[in-house]
Structure prediction request, 388 residues.
Amino acid sequence: MKMRDRYYFKLIGFGLLHFLTDFMCHFYAFRYVKSELGADVFTVFLAYNFVAFALQCPIGFFFDKMDRRISKEVAIAAGALLIISGYGIRIEAAAVTAGLLLCALGNACLHVAGSQGVIREGKKGLSGGGVFIAFGALGVGLGDYYGLNGIKHQYAFVGLLIFLIVATIFVVKIILKVRKTELKTNKNLISLDKESMICLFMCLIAVFIRSYVGFLLPKGFNELITGNAAENVSLFKAMLPNIVGFIGKAMGGIVVSLLMIAVGGKDLRKLNYIYGISALMASTLLLGAFGDVPACVFIGNLFFHSLMPVTYYEIFCILPQTPGFSLGYTTLALFAGMIPALAITPPAEYRTILIAIFNVLGAVGLALAFKMYLNRGKGEKGIKCKST
Prediction:
C-alpha cells in the first residue's frame, strides 16, 4: 500500500474516533448530567468545556514532550480508558459530574492524539487537519440530539466496547514499542523569534473572535432554518447546523490544498493566509448584509467554519514540533472566547452588526500576521513549515 493511501486510511480512522469521542461525551452530558442536575447543569458544562478545551494545551504539550514513537498510542489509550471510566462511575448519581469530567479529560487526550496523527504529513496536513476536526461536529450534533430525545442505553455500551477494543490495541502497541526501543523525551520543542510570536498572537486573536462570534451564529441560524432547539424536531433539521460545521471545517483545509494545485504555487502558508482573510470577509458579507436569506446564511456559515483548520495549520507551522500543543492552543482560545459569550448575551437586534464587527477584527488579525510572515520572508523566504 502506498504511503498516500495509508495516510488517508489513517485520517478516516482518526476522524471516526473523533466522531465517537464527541458523540459519547455529548450523549453523556445531555442524557445523564442534564437529567440529574437540572438548573446546575450550566456550571457543569462550563467545567466540562474547561477540561475538554482549555486543558488540551498543557495535555498536548505533555504528549509532545513524550517520545514521538509512543506519544500518540499513549494518548489514544488514555483517552479511551478515561471515557470508559467516566461512564463506569456514573452509576451513582452523585458521581455523574465526576464522570462527565473524566469523559472531558479523555476527550482532550483523544483530540491531541488525532492532531499528532494527521497534521505532520506534509501538505496533506492542512486538509487532513480539517477533515479530522470536521468529524467532531457530527458527533456533537448526534450526541446532543439522542441525549435530549432518548436512545437505548445499549448504544452507549456499543461505543464503550469500541473504546475498550481501541484501548486494548494501543496498550499492546505501547508495550511492544517500549520493549523494543530505547525511548527519549523530546527537548527544545518551542523556539520563537519576534515575527513568529506576533503571527502566533494574531492567529490566537482570530480564533478567540471566531469562538465568540460562533456563539452568536447558531441561534440566528437555527431560528431561520431549523427551529429553536434539537428537541422535538426531525433529525435532519436538528443536525443541519452540525452538517454545515462538518462541511465547512473540512472545506477549509481541502479548498486551500486544491487551490495550491490549481495555481501551481509553492507557498502553502501564503495561500492559507489569503484564503483565511477572504473567507472571513465573505462570511461577514453573507451573514451581515444577507442574514435573512437562508442560502446566504448557509454559505456564510460554511466560510465561517472553514477558518478552524486554517488557523490550526498556521499555528502548527509556527510551532512545528508540537502538533498536540498547537491544537491545544486553538482550543484554549476557543474556550476563552466562550466566556464573554456566555457572560453577556447581546440583544438580537445587535447580533448582525456584532458578527460583522468581530469578523472584520478577526480578518485584520490574520492580515497583520500575514504581514509579519511576508516581512520575515524578505530575508528568509518565509517562515517555513517543517512538515511541508
In short: Residues 378-383 have pLDDT under 50 and may be disordered. The two ends are 22 Å apart (CA to CA). The chain is about 80% helix and 0% strand. The first helix runs from residue 3 to 37.
